[in-house]
TrEMBL record:
Residues at the active site: 117, 259, 289
Positions of the UniProt region annotated as ACP-binding: 260-264
Annotated organism of origin: Phytohabitans houttuyneae
This protein's domain notes: The last Arg residue of the ACP-binding site is essential for the weak association between ACP/AcpP and FabH.
UniProt name for this protein: Beta-ketoacyl-[acyl-carrier-protein] synthase III
Subcellular location: Cytoplasm
Top-level EC class as recorded in UniProt: transferase
């Protein structure tokens, strides 16, 4: 490979994650809602989740995860910061520039990516594009969410599912054939079903209508049954396409990293792909669905605790609002991962 082509692929160089200290159990929710530990566990696989305390925002979590990722990569001179989030600090401006400034990266490119639970994989593709174009040689990619701030206090379903957290990767320029190189990203969307996962109020559509929003319209809404069907179908299809692009069969996958939306969704996708449960990574029982932070949080924790080892062939897939979905592959490298729990 020529020198001009040697640094055109994004390679994982370090990972870090941060979870807020407040643990919310199913029994905590049952004390205020018509639900129970058994009801939540049987339908979602979730036992606990982390929520921020009052006054803590998405940028606060993103900064913590970003610092750890740069420490893990032993590199604080990244050229760009990409923040995948559904819960920015404000509608305007983007949250990433503030995160970059707090990390000592003022002057670098910094912007948000919004694709809900598929946001991290969209961020991977964007970051890889920055590297391939030569616009950056090192990118700090962060997935961070404070979903507890947008959940309806009276909605037992969404309140049980979602948690807060952040995780980050440093991606450096490298070769396509080295461990850690990001494979081709398969991305897709279907805006005809945008109403399945949404916050109706606060955007230009509701504001320009002249009709005041009902209180519940300011909170996150999801039609669970329809989402389940689309998630399984879209994640499976994207994963199969990603495997084909990598030249892998499902049996070649050492570790499947599905977005932690629901334990039943992850199991259904793995079954359709023919990947045995022992090769499927998960942490939803402890942290719930952390949306754009889900995949990098699982990668960081798994690399740190030994479930993910150098040389493992890894398949990643996610699905979220938009509708939006994605998948990619990589061979796991020797890399430092620093979770903060």
């Amino acid at each position: 490979m020529s020198a001009a082509r040697a640094g055109t692929h994004a390679v994982v160089a370090g990972l870090g994650s941060y979870l807020p200290p407040r643990i919310v159990t199913n029994d905590d929710l049952a004390a205020h809602l018509d639900t129970s530990d058994e009801w939540i566990r049987s339908r979602t696989g979730i036992a606990t989740r982390r929520w921020v305390e009052r006054g803590v925002s998405t940028s606060d979590l993103a900064v913590e995860a970003g610092m750890l990722a740069m420490k893990a990569a032993d590199d604080d001179m990244v050229d760009a910061v990409v923040l995948a989030t559904t819960t920015p600090d404000r509608l305007c401006p983007a949250t990433a520039p503030e995160v970059a400034a707090r990390l000592g990266l003022t002057g670098r490119a910094a912007f948000d990516v919004s694709a809900v639970c598929a946001g991290f994989l969209y961020g991977v593709a964007v970051s890889a594009g920055l590297v391939a174009s030569g616009a950056a040689t090192r990118v700090l990619l962060i997935g961070a969410e404070t979903y507890s701030t947008i959940l309806d206090p009276a909605d037992r379903t969404t309140r049980a599912i979602f948690g807060d957290g952040a995780a980050a990767l440093v991606l450096r320029a490298g070769r396509a054939d080295e461990p850690g190189a990001i494979g081709r990203c398969v991305l897709g969307s279907d805006g005809e079903h945008s109403e399945l996962i949404n916050i109706p109020a606060g955007g230009s559509r509701q504001r320009s209508s002249g009709v005041p929003a009902a209180p519940a319209e300011h909170y996150f809404q999801m039609r669970g049954g329809d989402v389940y069907r689309h998630a399984v179908e879209r994640m499976t299809a994207a994963a199969l396409e990603s495997l084909e692009l990598a030249g892998w069969e499902p049996g070649d996958v050492d570790r499947f990293v599905p977005h932690q939306a629901n334990a039943r969704i992850a199991a259904a996708v793995a079954e359709r792909l023919g990947i045995e449960p022992a090769r499927v990574l998960g942490n939803i029982a402890e942290v719930g669905n952390t949306a754009a932070a889900s995949v990098p949080l699982l990668l960081t924790e798994s690399a740190a605790d030994g479930r993910l080892e150098p040389g493992h062939r890894v398949l990643v897939a996610a699905f979220g609002g938009g509708l939006a979905w994605g998948a990619t592959t990589l061979v796991w490298p020797h890399v430092t991962a620093l979770p903060s729990r």
